[in-house]
Specification:
Structural class: alpha/beta
Largest sheet: 7 strands, mixed
Number of helices: 14
Distance between the termini: 58 Å
Radius of gyration: 27 Å
Number of strands: 7
Order of helices and strands: EHEHEHEHHEHEHHEHHHHHH
Helix content: 40-55%
Strand order of the largest sheet: 3-2-1-4-6-5-7
């Protein structure tokens, strides 16, 4: 059982030693613990500090690519290295790394595919009352979109099983936190919450300039993900609202017309027509969104097959506990390349190796 702890970093040379010093080196049920630094365009000595402290695994960006891209690239590297569990923490020492052992327990017991550290934001001293309220509201919105019940949806202190990462596809450029929860909830992955307490604040967030920017970008990510998975709910609701708004002035005009006083109320027809057009557009967008949803499902199934080829076959979600009890690995080696199995199949010279298959012309019997 291999655990990768990935740490996205942007100029974290001062706090990184604190983070690395508190990461546990032994966890019951885990055979190997590896640390991965995802350097997102740091201009200080972050990488040098990490190397001096014994870190061997690095993913480096030549410029700042954002938290979502850092997460995605880190996961890609960890899966290639055979990770069975990937834990994500931060380089600013916000999260209690010593609680990683507790964070992975729901996965090891087979109770969850993803575990999220609940920061208990109502008790964080450096959070303003407004920020605490917004954190709660944001979590409720994400829970509504994902069909989950998580107290802290914005927490980046998380543990993912290998199988869950094969199902998730991060497409946003801002932050993966909200998007992965909505995807996981709609894909019926099991998510557990583990209460933790955060460390004292070391610096201001570099992910956003102010809370309003964070709210705006988070809202965009939530809306996009919700429409992606539940287009019927969105467009049917909007279509019915506009339809009712169209019927009201039409009915009003008809009542006045039958009463003999319809003159001068043409504006009701104009407003009703506009609302009717808006309703029809919503239902037309629903058809398009439904077709896109079908294509997305097919593409994601294809991506899962490609990931199995690239990273190796995995057991189904929730099988970590079974793997642990059976003392068997949860991964297997990636299959050999096609050109190794079938020489010349990828456009080579067609000459078979020793013991290989004959070329097509040589295999065809003479007539």
């Amino acid at each position: 059982m291999k655990l990768f702890v990935q740490i996205p970093c942007l100029n974290e040379e001062e706090t990184l030693p604190l983070v690395l010093a508190t990461i546990p080196r032994e966890i019951p049920g885990i055979d190997e613990i590896e640390i991965l630094i995802v350097d997102d365009g740091s201009t200080d000595r972050t990488v040098e500090v990490a190397r001096n402290l014994g870190v061997k695994h690095f993913v480096r960006h030549t410029r700042n690519m954002g938290l979502a891209r850092s997460f995605r690239d880190g996961v890609d590297y960890a899966l290639k290295q055979g990770a069975d569990i990937v834990v994500n923490t931060d380089g600013d020492n916000q999260y209690p790394q010593e609680r990683i052992a507790d964070l992975v327990q729901p996965l090891l017991r087979g109770e969850a595919d993803i575990a999220i550290g609940d920061r208990q934001t109502a008790t964080i001293e450096h959070f303003s009352p407004f920020k605490k309220v917004m954190q709660k509201v944001g979590s409720e919105v994400v829970n509504f979109a994902a069909g989950t019940d998580l107290p802290d949806a914005a927490s980046g202190f998380r543990a993912y099983s290998r199988a869950s990462l094969m199902h998730l596809n991060v497409v946003t450029q801002f932050s993966y936190c909200m998007e992965t929860i909505i995807q996981a909830g709609n894909k019926r992955l099991r998510i557990a919450s583990v209460p933790v307490t955060t460390n004292p604040k070391t610096r201001e967030s570099r992910l956003f300039k102010n809370i309003w920017q964070h709210m705006g970008k988070s809202g965009q990510a939530i809306s996009r993900s919700y429409i992606m998975f539940k287009p019927h709910t969105v467009f049917v609701t909007l279509g019915l609202i506009f339809l009712v708004a169209a019927l009201v002035p039409f009915v009003r005009f008809l009542v006045l017309w039958f009463a003999g006083s319809a003159g001068g109320h043409i504006q009701s027809l104009i407003f009703g027509t506009a609302m009717l057009v808006a309703s029809l557009l919503c239902f037309a967008l629903l058809v398009i969104a439904d077709l896109q949803k079908t294509n997305r499902v097919l593409l994601e199934e294809t991506l899962e097959r490609l990931k199995e080829i690239q990273y190796g076959t995995v057991y189904g979600t929730g099988d970590l506990r079974a793997a642990l009890e059976a003392h068997r690995p949860t991964t297997r080696a990636v299959p050999p390349a096609l050109d190794t199995l079938l020489p010349g199949a990828l456009g080579g010279d067609g000459a078979p190796s020793a013991g290989g298959l004959p070329a097509a012309d040589e295999a065809r019997p003479a007539r």
